[in-house]
Amino acid sequence: MTELDALAPGTPRLWTHENTTVQWSESIPVGALELRNTANEVVVRHGLTSAHIGERLVSRITDFGLSQREFELVMVGLVRSTVDDPVAAWATYYRNSLDELLSGTADFAPVHRRAEALVTGSVLDLGSCFGFFPLRLALRGRHVTATDLSAGTMRLLATVAPHLGATLDVITCDAAGIPVPDKSSDTVTALHLLEHVDDGTGARILGEAIRIARERVIVAVPFEEEATACHGHIRTFDVDALRFIGEQSGLPFEVDEFHGGWLVLDTSRVGVGV
Asked: Do the beta carbons of residue 77 and residue 123 sit within 8 Å?
């Protein structure tokens, strides 16, 4: 499976990739979506305008019962088939999403608001995906580094950030191996990342976060009865699971519940290289 180039040139109002076709249609009511999902293809017709493409689309597409790959392709297709120019399309999506997250209308808004209140100093964010949280911090004047395994997503973030007036660093890397020195950021965040990886990988990611963070590591996870497959979730958490991870770290920690679960590790007394 080749990595998706979200900025690749395309046909206005039409976007196709692999088994997925997304098309704007004047016969579809404004703001509406129609999806046909068969064994061989996914076809979406829509009447979205530039005002509709943003973070709030996530919950609408989640309800379609797609695979993770199909979910990603449909989301990209909706953005690209609504606004013709690739950079303008993504700048619109980012701007709308940040407005929704900052205003509290997006589902993920409480998570970002809580995380922002917890961070201190410079921040390195693990598994940034589109990078909305790093952008939020950068626009507040913080020095922030976004990281993600997807080179295409990091390239997209680096391309769009200047159009939003934001300055931040981006690194394409595995969260279990970040190419930065020990104690190089005050805070390391992992927001809704650990549910995407198995226990062993999660432990390595946490070890990297502890190595890098001078002050604290902030972990947020969803509390789900069943892992949400279309979002790439492969395991679930509860308060006891987070408390166990905190105890295994050997560090002072706090666990609580707020729109999911939170684990905050105090790394301020950990020596360099420990």
From this structure: no
Query: Among 230, 202, 234, which residue's Cα sits nearest to residue 217?
Result: 202
> Could you please report the per-residue DSSP string of 151-178?
HHHHHHHHHHGGGGT---EEEE--TTS-
DSSP label of 172 = E
Name residue, tokens 């946490």.
206
> Which class for 36: exposed (0-12), middle (13-18), buried (19 or more C-beta within 10 A)?
exposed
Task: Find, among 60, 44, 86, the residue nearest to 94 by Cα.
Answer: 86
Amino acid at residue number 5: D
Q: In degrees, to the nearest 5, what angle opens at C-alpha 187 toward C-alphas 269 and 256? A: 85
Residue 31 near residue 54, CB atoms below 8 Å: no
Tally of CB atoms within 10 A around 240: 10
Type of residue numbered 84 = D
Q: Which residue has the tokens 């692999």?
A: 18
CB atoms within 10 A of CB 51: 11
Neighbours of 207 (CB within 10 A): 12
- Asked whether 49 and 82 are in contact (CB, 8 A), the reply is yes
Tokens of 52: 């509709």
Q: Alpha helix (H) ranges present in 161-238?
A: 199-212
Residue 272: the pLDDT is: 44
CA distance 176 to 56: 30
pLDDT digits (tens, 9 = 90+) for 142-153: 999 999 999 999
Give, as one character, the DSSP assignment of residue 271: P
Nearest to 8 by CA among 85, 71, 66: 85
pTM above 0.85, yes or no: yes
